[in-house]
């Protein structure tokens, strides 16, 4: 699919700023900088803008119609949005760094962390990225049987709530105590209100089945809060579906074709924003980091 561009002509600009990613952080930074008369271009790898709002936030929580007004606001300010444009081997990051006065890197963290567990390649063992995207795009409309979500963060709660809505018996299995779960308390409460069962002190050991998942083996753990102690005692739970939501990370392919081997090696004119810059993966923290990134970009241009 060829790159698509949303374009509105601008005027005389103060500086030229590139933004990688059109999620909450990318769009907010673009809005702030465009209002200050910078020439802003957003580079988005997906066919639609919005980032995690478009593809990963469950549709029962957020209507996609809310994205369009944000895009229209950017269009009116002359922001150019390049869709279907993946930074990396085809369009190296170094090219943007040399062409623009500053680059705000806000690609989100859309790569799921993969645990080294036996049976992880069985059918019906999926990662949160695939699961939530398929649900939001209407590719997954029902689930039968028992679905176990592994993880204890807000994304795990989202997955478990979706599984419940799709018809499954939905369980969250977390390796530490309930009090040690990183999910916000209101997210845990919402999941339980939906009928999700929370099981703590269960650390996954392996997935069992011939070609598709039949059961999960956990080791029971012990410890208060964030403490984690292994007991050596195992328990097997039959399941029809497993969803792994144990963490996320940025896509390293952004660096392909450049001289940089890690995000830590990037020059000062590249500013991190959004999930890639925050421990807490929330819209509020993404917006805050975008504000800080815009201020830093302004200082770079002024110098």
Please describe what this structure looks like.
α5 (128-136) packs across α6. The two termini are 39 Å apart. By secondary structure, this protein is an alpha/beta fold. The longest helix has 20 residues, at 283-302. It is elongated. The protein has helices at residues 24-35, 52-55, 67-76, 93-99, 128-136, 154-165, 185-193, 283-302, and strands at 4-6, 16-20, 39-43, 80-83, 102-105, 111-112, 125-127, 146-150, 169-173, 197-199, 202-208, 215-222, 229-238, 241-244, 248-249, 270-272. β11 and β12 (215-222) form a beta hairpin. 27% of the residues lie in helices and 24% in strands. It folds into 2 domains: 4-109 and 250-302, FAD/NAD(P)-binding domain, CATH 3.50.50; 111-244, FAD/NAD(P)-binding domain (3-Layer(bba) Sandwich), CATH 3.50.50.60.
Descriptors:
303 residues, 2 domains, single chain, five-stranded parallel β-sheet, FAD/NAD(P)-binding domain, alpha/beta, 8 helices, six-stranded mixed β-sheet
Strand content: 15-25%
Helix content: 25-40%
Low-confidence stretches at least 5 residues in length (pLDDT < 50)? Answer: 5-10
Mean pLDDT: 93
Distance between the termini: 39 Å
**Would you list the SSEs in sequence order as H and E?**
EEHEHHEHEEEHEHEHEEEEEEEH
| CATH topology call of the largest domain | FAD/NAD(P)-binding domain
Can you say what the CATH homologous superfamily of the largest domain is?
FAD/NAD(P)-binding domain
Main beta-sheet strand count, sense and barrel state? 6 strands, mixed
Number of domains: 2
């Amino acid at each position: 699919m060829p790159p698509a561009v949303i374009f509105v002509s601008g005027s005389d600009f103060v500086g030229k700023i590139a933004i990688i990613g059109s999620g909450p952080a990318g769009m907010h930074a673009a809005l702030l900088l465009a209002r200050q008369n910078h020439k802003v271009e957003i580079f988005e790898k997906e066919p639609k803008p919005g980032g995690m709002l478009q593809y990963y936030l469950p549709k029962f929580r957020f209507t996609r119609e809310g994205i369009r007004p944000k895009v229209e606001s950017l269009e009116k300010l002359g922001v150019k949005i390049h869709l279907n444009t993946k930074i990396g081997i085809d369009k190296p990051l170094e090219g943007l760094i040399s062409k623009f006065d500053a680059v705000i890197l806000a690609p989100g963290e859309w790569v799921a962390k993969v645990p080294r567990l036996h049976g992880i390649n069985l059918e019906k063992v999926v990662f949160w990225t695939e699961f939530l995207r398929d649900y939001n795009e209407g590719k997954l409309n029902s689930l039968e049987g028992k679905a176990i979500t592994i993880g204890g963060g807000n994304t795990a709660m989202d997955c478990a709530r979706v599984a419940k809505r799709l018809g499954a018996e939905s369980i969250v299995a977390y390796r530490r105590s309930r009090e040690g779960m990183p999910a916000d308390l209101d997210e845990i409460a919402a999941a339980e209100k939906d009928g999700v069962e929370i099981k703590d002190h269960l650390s996954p050991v392996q997935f069992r089945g011939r070609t598709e998942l039949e059961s999960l083996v956990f080791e029971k753990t012990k410890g208060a809060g964030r403490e984690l102690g292994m007991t050596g005692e195992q328990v097997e739970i039959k399941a029809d579906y497993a969803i792994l939501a144990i963490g996320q990370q940025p896509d390293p392919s952004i660096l392909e074709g450049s001289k940089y081997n890690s995000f830590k090696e990037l020059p000062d004119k590249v500013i991190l924003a959004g999930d890639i810059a925050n421990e807490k993966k929330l819209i509020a923290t993404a917006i805050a980091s975008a504000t800080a990134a815009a201020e830093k970009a302004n200082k770079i241009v002024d110098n």
